[in-house]
Amino acid sequence: MKSSKVVKSIQEAVALSGLKSGMTVSFHHHLRNGDYVLNMVMEQVAAAGIKDLTVNASSLFDIHAPLIDHIKNGVVTTIQTNYMSSKIGKAISNGLMKSPVQFRTHGGRPSDIVLGRTPIDVAFIAAPSADCMGNCSGKYGKSACGSLGYAVPDAMHAKKVVVITDSLVQYPLLDWSIPESYVDYVVAVDEIGDINGIVSGTTKITRDPVGLVMAQRAAQVIKHSGLLKDGFSFQTGAGGATLAAAKFLKDIMLRENIKGSFGLGGITGYMVDMLEAGCFESLLDVQCFDLKAVESIRKNPKHQEISSIHYASPSARSAVVDSLDVVLLGATEVDTDFNVNVHTDSNGYIMGGSGGHSDTAAGAKLAMIIAPLFRARLPIVTDRVNCISTPGQDVDVLVTQAGIAVNPKNKELALRLKDAGLPVVDIHELKAIAEKITGQPKPLPKGDKTVANVIWRDGTIIDTIKNVPTEGGTL
Amino acid sequence: MADIIKRATAGTMESSDAYVEISPAEGLEISLESVVQKQFGAAIEAVVAEVLEECKVANAKVTVIDKGALDCVIRARVETAVMRGRGE
Questions:
Q1: Cα distance from B44 to chain A (closest Cα, Å)?
Q2: Where are the domains of chain B?
Q3: Residue A444 sits at the chain B interface (C-beta within 8 Å)
Q4: CB–CB of B38 and A437 under 8 A?
Q5: Section A38-64 average pLDDT
Q6: Residues of B with CB below 8 A from A379's CB?
Q7: A–B: how many Cβ contacts below 8 A?
Q8: Do residue A346 and residue B40 have CB atoms under 8 angstroms apart?
Q9: Residue-level pLDDT at A229
Q10: How far is CA A300 from CA A64, A153, A283, A294, B70, in A?
Q11: Average pLDDT, 10 consecutive residues per value, chain B (88 residues)
């Protein structure tokens, strides 16, 4: 009988796990830009002389920049992720890696793990609280992050599972996210992360007048879509304008006494307010964005943790996104076929990823993009996005301050919005209006090396990202 | 027209604005740094040169740090920098 799975150090856990060169390690991103765990583990892995690893991380943030050196030193040769912020993204776009990054979605990643397409040898779970047998939770402890939803498929399917915690509690930890039955080793460390990077204090609503106009219009689109009635379900991103839209939506729901069924997603304090005000019966939460969300998931039984499989996996028997009415999403670019880019910035550098963008767009009855007509002189609407993150077939509406473009496949919605007096315009017209103000941008030069493949939720590659050529050369 | 007699600035480094610095020099020297260099670099340089010509500035060093400003903003910032540089 095992009385404890606690081992002395990450170094020991790595050794016991049997990790060898050429294998795959996995990480989840609930500690976001405050995560210490990925770096601590990779440091030990590198020190052990292990090379040629695949890192499968649900998302990568700037704090994970030490990965760049691990790539240069041959410790890491493949990256699989759903999102990558600009620090590592820029290095990748400059041609850092031999083999292209594999971008998946928050639903595609667990799907591929469950189906055995991306097997994991050792999963490392950053756990804000755990007991000596590995029952663990994100809701408690000094580094509490709330949901651990993205770590669940890793825990269920990795050959070995290591839980790393900075709050080792007495057995049994109740209200676990991941039960001991999946866990091989437990390591206690001083700190798994920096709380300031894990959650933001409060997420603020935009005060930008353009953002507010877009948000108000977006709420009107939802109101007149025919979907806003009792049982309504909703997801929104944490961006300033989408949050403001949620505020206007909340006002409408309270005024008209509409009782929604659930709010989904990465959850912010704003969605918690909507739950508490009676706009929804429940919140289904794969990741908490702020302290209010963390507190709510800990205290309110109507605020339920879900795994990424349950959230969005296309190969699950069903996932919550399939029951979603409306999702509000952002974009760096949208083209006249409604394809959306959330992977690369205006200079072609990687600075994001789909996350749940394409999963929710595919699942929701109404997928809405909110974006300004132009951002720092660059029109949002282009002939062809620099990278297709979410295909236009899944995008229903683009809301800008100059008008609302409805995907032509959605004739009934266009009529409803027009009848409601909303400014429905052709998407080509939005492009023309913007270019009249900004001038026509020259197309970005692209390199000839593929630095990343964008793998859609069904496993097909829907686009490739090329390197950004340096001045006067290809690489 | 008066020469540029002193170093002067206009604008800010905020997104969608431009920061323009002008100082006395022999001949005209324009340098540009822009977040939309690839898409609009040539267009911005042309509009800066145009404004300087309209203002009859033949001798000056002009540095523009552009954060994605529209042409009207760039024109206004350059004109203001010129006026300030002339002590007007």
A1: 10
A2: 8-85
A3: yes
A4: no
A5: 98
A6: none
A7: 37
A8: no
A9: 97
A10: 33, 25, 10, 10, 49
A11: 89 95 95 95 96 95 97 97 94
Check whether A238 has a pLDDT greater than 90. Answer: no
pLDDT exceeds 50 at position A96: yes
> Which of these, A355, A365, A463, A366, lies nearest to A107 by C-alpha position?
A355
Band (pLDDT 50/70/90 cuts) for residue A156 is: very high
Residue to substitute from B36, B50, B67, interface A, most A β-carbons within 10 A: B36
| H/E segment holding residue A172 | none
For chain B, the farthest-separated pair of C-alpha atoms sits apart, in whole angstroms, at 35
Nearest CA distance, B42 vs chain A (angstrom) = 10
Residue pair A250/A280 in contact (Cβ under 8 Å)? The answer is no
User: Would you tell me which CATH number, out of the four given (3.30.230.10, 3.65.10.10, 3.30.450.20, 2.60.40.2140), belongs to the domain B8-85?
Assistant: 3.30.230.10
For residue A10, give the DSSP letter: H
Instruction: Tell me which architecture the domain covering A209-438 has in CATH.
Output: 3-Layer(aba) Sandwich (3.40)
In A, minimum Cα distance to B17 occurs at A376
CB atoms within 10 A of CB A1: 2
User: pLDDT tens digits, residue range A296-308?
Assistant: 999 999 999 999 9
Q: What is the mean pLDDT of residues A387-400?
A: 98
Interface touch A378/B67, C-beta < 8 Å: no
CA distance A455 to A104: 5
Q: In what order do the strands lie in the sheet with B60-66?
A: B8-11, B18-23, B60-66, B28-34
Q: Do A377 and B36 touch (CB under 8 A)?
A: yes
pLDDT of A84 > 60? The answer is yes
Omega prior to A172 cis, within 30 of 0: yes
A62: left (phi over 0), alpha (psi -120 to 50) or beta: alpha
Nearest to residue A162, comparing CAs of A188, A123, A119? A123
Pick the closest to residue A76 from A2, A24, A134 (CA basis).
A24
CA A149 – CA A251 distance, rounded (Å):
30
Comparing alpha-carbon positions, the chain A residue that sits nearest to B14 is A376
Residue bearing tokens 């091989």: A184
Cα angle A256, A258, A260 (rounded to 5 degrees) comes to 155
Q: Does domain A6-198 have CATH number 2.140.10.10?
A: no
Residue A266 parent element (H or E): strand A262-267
* Pairing between β-strand A378-379 and β-strand A374-375 as defined by DSSP bridges: antiparallel
Of A376, A439, A445, the CB nearest to B71: A439
A470 contact B CB<8A: no
Q: Which of B35, B40, B71 sits opposite A441 (nearest CB)?
A: B40
A437 touches chain B (CB under 8 A): yes
Chain B residues close to A441, C-beta within 8 Å: 36, 39-40
Domain ranges of chain A: 6-198, 209-438
Q: What is the mean pLDDT of chain A?
A: 95
SS3 state at A6: strand
